[in-house]
Amino acid sequence: MNSIKIMVDEHENILRMLKVVRSACYGIFNDDDICYEDFYDMVDFIRNYADKHHHGKEEKFLFKEMKSNLGSVGNNLITHGMLVEHDYGRMYVSNLIDALERVKNGDEESKLDVIANAISYTHLLERHIAKENDGVYKFAEKSLSKEVLDDINKKAETFEQDAEAKGTQKNYLNLLQKLEKKYLY
Asked: Which of 28, 29, 47, 178 lies 20 to 30 A from 160 at CA?
């Protein structure tokens, strides 16, 4: 198993969801009613597939080893770059949920905050994914020893198998397809 290839593939699924989020926001911009169930499904995907599942592997395995084995460059790249961006993403999603609740409770102006936080999340993740795919992952593959990469792959494989046993990947890819059919086609 090549854990970095799996993470790149997961990025493609996350990018697909970002298109759904953008389309749903465009609907709000055009005065469509907010479908709260769909937005909560988008948040569920973001929190559990993109963050817990995907970022979980990065943070627990790859980034941990990069910080431990690649000196100050690896530590700074991860600590002051990738992990900060993960935290910004979590903030945007938390703010999005708060804004959805305010709109649900009658605060029409908070539609601006729904759009602002959702779109900010999409922009952040698009740039973040490009940095990881084009820089961070390649740096890791080039700079970490074969033994360390093999260890990451082994841990990621167990993580993937545990998630598959729970139906994580299947559940969220089905949810993604459902939302794509509604918002993109």
From this structure: 178
Q: Which numeric CATH code is attached to 3-183? A: 1.20.120.520
- Is residue 121 within 8 A of residue 21, CB to CB? The reply is yes
Q: What is the pLDDT of residues 77-121, one digit of tens each?
A: 999 999 999 999 999 999 999 999 999 999 999 999 999 999 999
Average pLDDT, the chain: 97
Mean pLDDT for 33-40 is 98
C-alpha span between 95 and 10 (Å, rounded):
24
Please state whether the predicted TM-score (pTM) of the whole model is above 0.70: yes
